[in-house]
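User: Can you model how guanosine-5'-triphosphate sits in this protein?
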Amino acid sequence: MQFVDEATVEVVAGAGGKGVISFRRESHVAFGGPDGGNGGRGGDVVVFATSRVVTLLDHRYKRWYKGKAGDNGGAKNCTGRSADPIRVPVPIGTVLTDETTGDVIADLSTDGQEVVVARGGRGGQGNARFQTSTRQTPRFAQDGEAGESRTIGLSLKLVADVGLLGLPNAGKSTFLRAVTESQARVGAYPFTTLVPNLGVYRRGDRDLVIADIPGLIEGAHEGQGLGDRFLKHVERTRVLIHLLSLSPDAPDATEAWRVVNNELAQRSAELRSRPQLVVLNKIDVLDDRYELDLWREAFAELGVEVLVMSGLTGENVHEIMTQVLELIPAKLGEEEDDTPKPWSPV
Ligand SMILES: Nc1nc2c(ncn2[C@@H]2O[C@H](COP(=O)(O)OP(=O)(O)OP(=O)(O)O)[C@@H](O)[C@H]2O)c(=O)[nH]1
Ligand SMILES: [Mg+2]
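Assistant: Here's the modeled complex, given as structure tokens:
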């Protein structure tokens, strides 16, 4: 699944239809008064969230959305027909920003939620409207108003149940592949993953969307290694699995833990207090499992209880997911409670 998380589109609503200049011409009306009708309203541009699209990819190719014009007015005081809005689908979790002012227009976080991003122009008034006692035969009418136009930034915040967190090379993509059908690329070099990969984990009647987020490095919250963009995705996950590599070429696991959590804390206190399972990964590389006891002690001193696994061999992976399922209430649809779960940051 290719994941496109940013796009910019131009929207122009439809212009209003023209008002019309017309005079009654009926056999029994000797001197017809003005009867030019008003133009119809131009079509709005509406953006709506739907589960049918999952990325902003389409908006990379199609960048213009133009509303239809309202119909012109007609004789006999006929008002022109207003144009229907055009409706632009985006994934749930899309935030819309006015690129000119920088203002957030809307955060479309639920299925079907919509917002008018550009209003259609009003129809012009027909000459009938300009008749007064002193002006019996107005020979003019109004044009329709132009539709609003705007440049809109679309930014998708991921909505996943579980986010995989860790330094580059911690083994996030390998883990995603182990527990889901995802074919996320794995590489023996940092920053293999540059855009989040999604996978679905199924057990019994439960399914969880897991997001494999690119590795974070020190300074991520200031944009190091595109970290500010990656942190944005972490924000919309319910539970984090924080992977720490025990491979000899990886940084010390307690240090890695500190660096990544510091980046979360810099982003927001709420993010730092999100439920987090701390998992020592790649235990298959250890010559002696006794080392794990030393690690457990080192983390206990930081007040952190750690789990251990190997995403590569699959050892303990099932147990990790059992713990994750326990942290996530089964009926999310009904629960919709965004307050952080009781969990003490460590
Ligand atoms: N021995 C061992 N190697 C692992 C394990 N998990 C991952 N690796 C290796 O570690 C390297 C990095 O794995 P990835 O899954 O790509 O790591 P990542 O965290 O997704 O890395 P980025 O996308 O760069 O952030 C690859 O060479 C993997 O084969 C494990 O459990 N044991
Ligand atoms: Mg990866």
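A couple of observations from the model: Residues 253-267 form the longest helix (15 residues). The domain at 160-335 is CATH 3.40.50.300 (Rossmann fold).
User: Helpful, thanks.
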